[in-house]
Amino acid sequence: MTVTSHPTRTTPPAALVGGVVGLLVLAAASTMVGVADLSWEVLWVSRLPRTVALVLAGAALAVCGLLMQLLVRNRFVEPSTVGTTEAAGLGLVVITLLAPGAPLMAKMGTAALFALAGTWLFLRVVRLMPVRETILVPLIGLMLGGVIAAVTTFLAFHRDLLQTLNSWMTGDFSGILIGRYELLWLVAGLVVVAFLAADRFTVAGMGETFSTNAGLDHRAVVAVGLTIVSVVSAVVVVTVGVIPFLGLVVPNVVSTLVGDNARRGLPWVAVLGSGLVLACDIVGRLVRYPYEIPVGTVMGVLGAAFFLVLLLRSAPRAS
Amino acid sequence: MTVTASTDLRACVGIDRPGIRAEGVTKRYGRTVVVDDVHLDLPLGGVTALIGPNGAGKSTLLSIVGRLLAADGGRVTVAGLDVATSRSDELAKAMAVLRQENHLDIRLTVRELVTFGRYPHSKGRPTGDDLVHVEKALEYLDLTGLADRFLDQLSGGQRQRAFVAMVLCQDTDVVLLDEPLNNLDLRHAVAMMGRLRDAARELGRTIVVVVHDINVASCYADTIVAMRDGRVAACGSPAQIMQPDLLEDIYGLPVRVHEIDDQLIATYYG
């Protein structure tokens, strides 16, 4: 009997190498766009940090989308459709009110804790639902996110924090300078953890029965995975703000291309996630040059349209 | 000759070094007792068929043995390991279990799915040895040609074979299968039972299947356990269980048993 080779397991396929090259081209383009004349100082202090931040945030958010979809076993969930992101925002407002001078790490930690609590609340509500209709799950999440966002806005409105809140809730890389994005490297570390544990997440995505049969502690994997998602969401909200739908668009595209096996799909998700955010950011910088449209807005328009297409396409399958 | 249930029951308790032992296993949902104080020893090696009408507790018992469901009372040991207290990853190397309803929300190819059968051994880093097991399992269930197809592109029967391939690929001494013949056409159903019997005879595996067709149990099982109302109603060899009175008692309809080509075949249609 011969054993056929498995190119995806040993060497990355040519297409993925192509994807990485495309990403590098986009990254190079990203450093070239801007109002200021290009000098070494501008490049080092502003352009390069911005590009690195785009790459890290894009990859991490897309990977988080995939993790969440595997762990919740629903194609339509990602941090911004289940309340995780909104909860992180609430955490930021709360810590700003209670301890205005708190260091960045304390803010990030609080946001992460709130994000985790928000995600947990979402899971509780979903479990309480009598029917587990695929499309109802993200709808519940969006409603929950809406409620949390309303509370946040109320608090911010009363304490004159609306402008600050707005800067958190709209993803924008224009403020990225050296010394103001480095927290994102923590996120890169978490993505590496996700890569190492990829098979666990896939098995967990097969459900509790298959996980138990494989000897995997399903609850533990879900807990670890959602903690990663919460911390990444919090860090991204703190450093650049919300980039909605990214974690929804990218994993769903990758799923149709190579399936949901995380070991195979994660490199794709990370590369395409970075690429998409880079592209959206470049578009946002060029559309009304020399002014900028925040990347969160560009992604919001694109992602909402994609979400709608995804919902409509899946409707006959879900019935 | 009619063998009464009480004499049969003795065939399945107090076996020396059983493959699976259930002692007083009970499961309730609210007030309904689904599995009622079951004592059962299944021998090491061989095919055991669990039969009985709907709601007899077959699947529930199988899920409890496979530690997919916690019992409300009693104890189950598989190859000497208590399923409630042993480490799940250790159990996964000794026992594989497949439920009746298998729906995956995620897109995997057949080969990827079957490779996950090696997870308890490889922890996600399949070695050459693991991949040999994978190819063997694919071939064993006639899936080689479908190996790179996604599960959502397959028919129900092909998917069912892929799930069984995954479970066999786990290479455990004990294999529990709930309705493995679901969705299978005649040829694949017969092939599957033949494969399971071979695995039991040649590799010494202990295989427990829930089947609906009592003739499948009669022709392929070494031991038949008949359940009714959450209890073991009878237990023994096919010759001991394939008795008209006993089957009528279990299923609640008249059953005739014929010997055709050295096989005991039950007929029960109008």
Give a written overview of the molecule:
The complex is a heterodimer of chains A (319) and B (270). Chain A is an all-alpha fold and 319 residues long. Chain A has one domain: ABC transporter involved in vitamin B12 uptake, BtuC, CATH 1.10.3470.10. Chain A contains 14 helices and no strands. Chain B has eleven helices and twelve strands. Chain B has helices at residues 5-9, 58-65, 88-94, 110-116, 119-122, 128-140, 156-169, 186-203, 214-220, 238-241, 244-251, and strands at 20-29, 32-42, 46-51, 73-78, 81-82, 95-98, 174-178, 206-210, 223-228, 231-236, 256-260, 263-267. The two termini of chain B are 24 Å apart. The model of chain B is unreliable at 1-7 (pLDDT under 50). Classes of the chains: A mainly alpha (319), B alpha/beta (270). At the A-B interface, helix 9 and helix 10 of A face helix 3, strand 6, helix 4 and helix 6 of B.
Q: Under CATH, the topology of chain A is which?
A: ABC transporter involved in vitamin B12 uptake, BtuC
| Annotation, overall tally of beta strands of chain A | 0
> Number of helix segments of chain B?
11
Q: Main beta sheet of chain B, described?
A: 6 strands, mixed
- String of helices and strands of chain B: HEEEHEEHEHHHHEHEHEEHHEE
Arithmetic mean of pLDDT of chain A: 88
Distance between the termini of chain B: 24 Å
Question: How does CATH name the architecture of chain B?
Answer: 3-Layer(aba) Sandwich
Spatial order of the strands forming the largest sheet of chain B: 6-7-8-3-9-10
Oligomer: heterodimer
Count of strand segments of chain B: 12
Low-pLDDT parts of chain A are: 1-10
Q: By CATH's scheme, which homologous superfamily of chain A applies?
A: ABC transporter involved in vitamin B12 uptake, BtuC
Secondary-structure element sequence of chain A? HHHHHHHHHHHHHH
The best one-word shape of chain B is: globular
Enter the CATH topology name of chain B: Rossmann fold
Radius of gyration of chain B: 18 Å
Largest interface: which pair?
A-B, 32 and 40 residues
The level of helicity of chain A is over 70%
